[in-house]
Design goal:
mainly alpha, 2 domains, two-stranded antiparallel ribbon, 6 helices, elongated
């Protein structure tokens, strides 16, 4: 998964809110293999099958449209992995929100601690899962 390098700058007190999860061809190939083994490959539309096959041959996926389509296909083929990716994105957004809040309140030590937390992918996923499992009434809009 993508790291959180440079997600917040403490000196300028600005946050980089664009969060990119890297979908690698290796992940797409694994999803393609899983789809073929479980039979979910034949339940996909022909265009979705073509996207999976062709994206597995790419070196790097940069297009946001292609990335979104691959993630939607991944939800159909491999829901557990799609949940982890969504939790990672939500965790990074939540941590960046909390870092911004800490900086606005003047708590630089708390912001640095949160940035250290953002460096560990497992903890980011845990924060994201806790955010996703929070009822929408109590959620902070990110």
């Amino acid at each position: 998964m993508a790291g959180c390098e440079g997600s917040a700058r403490l000196r300028g007190q600005q946050l980089n809110t664009s969060i990119e999860v890297q979908v690698t061809p290796r992940l797409v190939r694994a999803a393609l293999t899983k789809a073929r083994r479980t039979g979910a490959y034949w339940k996909l539309k022909p265009a979705e099958r073509a996207i999976l096959v062709l994206a597995s041959r790419l070196n790097y996926i940069r297009s946001p449209v292609l990335l979104d389509s691959i993630l939607s296909i991944l939800e159909k083929v491999w829901p557990q992995k799609a949940l982890v990716i969504r939790a990672y994105e939500a965790g990074l957004r939540y941590i960046s929100y909390k870092v911004g809040l800490a900086l606005r309140l003047g708590a630089r030590a708390a912001a640095e601690g949160l940035l250290a937390l953002a460096g560990d992918a497992r903890r980011v996923v845990l924060v994201g899962l806790s955010y996703l499992n929070t009822p929408s009434f109590y959620r902070v809009v990110l």
